[in-house]
């Protein structure tokens, strides 16, 4: 007990020293609200849910961000982080300090040298302060946070337990399974996917949900994150040919010729998956291969015309793919996925003006004043004789930002944009 108390004192003093230097450097008003600290980027939450490695033996504790993550108390009882923070705030605080003392530098430096993104002292000090504030909030207002968590689809209704992954996956793919049921028997289905789950048992969970519906998942194996993939009819699996390596090499060279940044090229190509499917489901006749290119593009920002040229080139090259050595090229090519096109509001448009514009626009259409930045993308597709479905001016994303997201300064803002496309 004495050693533990001494360790806590040392850790607390060290973290206090780091925080004091950080708060002095940032000119933090001690009476400031948490919301104002976030809005002013004193608490920088942009990387909040990414700075955690599943392989890290000393995992980070945050009673809000990781509220449903497993937590084992000193008594050996396994619960979730939110409950652990509420039951024993002092022990939870000790876990926070122990984690940050393995990550923070020896002393706070106002002008750090950037070795990598995670080495910034200011960022670590910011997250340390955020984790302590979250602990304080959750432990001081347990009933409020219990009620809030019960609204989440990640929680089993009527309990504090995380919803089983199979139930979550089934809920996400339900529109797809309903669609398949409504189609004539034997109709081939191919769906491009991004952000597939990557937990240790995720493939087992996916199979348990998809297999009864006659569906199968194939991941982009050349990407270390393996989050991109296809869900397709199981009957198509025997004729599936992954040609990502072939096409992605050609697309990389093309993007380099357009002087696109390495960051855009790297992410866009790494996440792209290219598959050829023989959709001739009969036992006779020649194969009928269709190439499907599944994108999860890094935002090209204002370079939407360049992105349009890229899509036109992808279509051209995909149509030339030869899935069987010595055979013929594919009969058709289709591009699908998240193009990450942006449809920004006119400068200065406030939340109420955004809401009014959306309500006054034609149903499912992006407000006219927001379409200008996307126009070059559509123009390049027109030149190539290809088009998007639905038409480009239709939105596929309509979301309202709330104060519960990591950018509360954008509370009330509306994102009405075109992310997902099928290009034929």
Strands, helices and their partners?
Blueprint: H1 2-25, H2 34-39, E1 70-72, E2 78-80, H3 81-87, H4 89-103, H5 121-140, H6 142-149, H7 165-182, E3 190-193, H8 202-210, E4 215-219, E5 229-233, E6 241-242, H9 244-257, H10 262-270, E7 273-278, E8 289-296, H11 304-318, E9 332-338, H12 351-360, H13 375-384, E10 388-389, E11 397-400, E12 414-417, E13 420-423
Parallel strand pairs: 8-9
Antiparallel strand pairs: 1-2, 3-5, 4-5, 6-7, 7-8, 9-13, 10-13, 11-12
Helix pairs in contact: 1-4, 1-5, 3-4, 3-5, 4-5, 7-8, 9-10, 9-11, 11-13
Word description of this protein:
It contains 13 helices and 13 strands. It is of the alpha+beta class and 424 residues long. The strands form four sheets. The chain has a six-stranded mixed sheet with strand order 6-7-8-9-13-10. A three-stranded antiparallel sheet has the order 3-5-4. Helix 3 (81-87) crosses helix 5. The radius of gyration is 25 Å and the shape is globular. The chain starts with a helix and ends with a strand.
What descriptive keywords fit this protein?
424 residues; alpha+beta; globular; 13 helices
Strand/helix succession? HHEEHHHHHEHEEEHHEEHEHHEEEE
What's the rounded overall pLDDT mean?
85
What is the percent of helical residues? Answer: 25-40%
Number of strands: 13
Major beta-sheet overview: 6 strands, mixed
- The rough form would be described as globular
CA radius of gyration: 25 Å
Given helix and strand content, the structural type is: alpha+beta
Poorly predicted runs: none
The first-to-last residue Cα distance is 68 Å
Q: Work out the strand percent.
A: 5-15%
Going across the major beta sheet, what is the strand order? 6-7-8-9-13-10
């Amino acid at each position: 007990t004495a050693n533990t108390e001494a360790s806590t004192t040392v850790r607390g003093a060290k973290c206090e020293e780091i925080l004091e230097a950080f708060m002095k450097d940032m000119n933090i008003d001690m009476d400031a609200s948490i919301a104002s600290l976030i809005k002013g980027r004193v608490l920088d939450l942009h990387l909040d849910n990414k700075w955690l490695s599943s392989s890290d033996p000393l995992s980070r504790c945050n009673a809000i961000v990781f509220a449903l993550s497993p937590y084992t108390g000193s008594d050996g009882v396994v619960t979730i982080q939110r409950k652990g923070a509420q039951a024993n705030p002092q022990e939870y605080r000790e876990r926070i300090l122990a984690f940050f003392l393995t990550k923070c530098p020896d002393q706070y430096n106002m002008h750090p040298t950037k070795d990598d993104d995670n080495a910034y002292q200011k960022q670590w000090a910011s997250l340390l302060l955020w984790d302590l504030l979250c602990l304080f909030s959750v432990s001081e207002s347990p009933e409020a946070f219990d009620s809030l968590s019960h609204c989440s689809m990640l929680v089993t209704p009527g309990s504090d337990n995380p919803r089983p992954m199979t139930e979550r996956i089934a809920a996400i793919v339900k529109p797809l399974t309903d669609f398949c049921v409504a189609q004539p028997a034997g109709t081939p289905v191919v769906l491009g996917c991004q952000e597939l789950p990557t937990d240790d048992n995720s493939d087992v969970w996916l199979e348990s949900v998809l297999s009864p519906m006659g569906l199968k998942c194939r991941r982009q194996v050349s990407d270390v994150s393996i989050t991109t993939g296809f869900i397709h009819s199981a009957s198509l699996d025997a004729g599936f040919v992954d040609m990502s390596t072939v096409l992605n090499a050609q697309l990389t060279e093309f993007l380099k010729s357009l002087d696109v940044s390495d960051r855009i090229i790297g992410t866009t190509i790494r996440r792209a998956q290219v598959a050829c499917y023989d959709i001739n489901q009969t036992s006779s006749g020649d194969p009928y291969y269709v190439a499907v290119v599944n994108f999860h593009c890094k935002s090209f920002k204002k370079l939407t015309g360049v992105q349009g040229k890229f899509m036109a080139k992808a279509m051209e090259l995909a149509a030339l793919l030869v899935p069987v050595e010595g055979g013929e090229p594919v009969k058709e090519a289709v591009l699908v996925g998240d193009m990450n096109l942006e449809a920004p509001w006119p400068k200065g448009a406030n939340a109420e003006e955004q809401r009014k514009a959306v309500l006054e626009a034609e149903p499912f259409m992006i407000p006219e004043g927001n379409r200008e930045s996307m126009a070059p993308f559509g123009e390049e597709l027109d030149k190539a004789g290809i088009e998007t479905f639905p038409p480009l001016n239709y939105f596929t994303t309509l979301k309202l930002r709330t104060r519960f997201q990591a950018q509360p300064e954008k509370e009330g803002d509306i994102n009405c944009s075109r992310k997902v496309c099928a290009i034929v």
